[in-house]
Model the fold of this input.
Amino acid sequence: MRHFLDLIDIAPADLRTILDDALAMKAARRGAPLGQADADAPLAGHVLAMIFEKSSTRTRFSFDMAVRQLGGSSIIASSGEMQLGRGETVEDTARVISRYVDAVMIRANDHSDVEAFAAAASVPVINGLTDRSHPCQIMADLMTLEEYGLSLAGARLAWVGDGNNVCSSFIHAAAKFGFTLAIGTPGRYAPEEEDVSIARELGGEILLHDSAEAAVAGADAVIADTFVSMGDSDADERLARLADFAVSADLMAQAKPGAFFLHCLPAHRGEEVDSEVIDGPQSLVFDEAENRLHAQKAILKWCLDRQ
Ligand code: CP
Ligand code: NVA
Done:
């Protein structure tokens, strides 16, 4: 069974296969109507269930379109409209849904719930974001950087702001794709030590800084995310403590000339990033958003062994 729960668990060759497939599928259907299935319709007759415990725009629409373009279909529900929201166990939910569909994508508050769901399921399970990680996002981000000509092995990426779930998946990716990840956070919002140590054990070069300037120096790409993630209850304190880690044009000027700017969206202009950066020529944020679709098609095919 191939689950897609965290990049750290997946072999580099498989991640490479997924990115190559995503790039090839995107090129092959260029110009086709978005709702038209790919010529080979590799998931014809297949159904993806999607369960959301938290809000989503990109993940919801891109997965739905991904499975349609692969020739399959989807069923989407929020946990609140399922018995899950009334106390049915994660495990029983997984066992039941596995009898109906071919794969499940879950966006959950607690990462352990996605792990428990996958352990009980008899179909592949995909992590569509938890409090701990967001692996699908990073596959789209890396695809985007490659499209813009960056060779990942040996590249230097800079993460600035909160050492959150998206940061954790970038840490995992550094170990798998061979880029250096320089992280600038206030100490209080440093990334999970477990993620840093496991990535380093696998050879990942993870540099921890307590200033944004140190992190972005010489970077090929600068990455930001919201200062207040879904589920965070200390918004005022976060906004105050993270203010010095906002990405401005001045900060971008300290990275390599022409460095790319990435943000998974949704963005808060004037908080973690200035408008002139996210809406400026170095920003790839809408390519990233589009590439969620293409990367997730390849993830679905990998999970269902349809490559
Ligand atoms: N980037 C991302 O996952 O966006 P959504 O929360 O809108 O799905
Ligand atoms: N870190 C953000 C990402 C949203 C896509 C959150 O978890 O809310």
User: Anything to note?
Assistant: The CA atoms of residues 140 and 291 lie 5 Å apart. The chain has two domains: 7-134+292-303, 149-283.
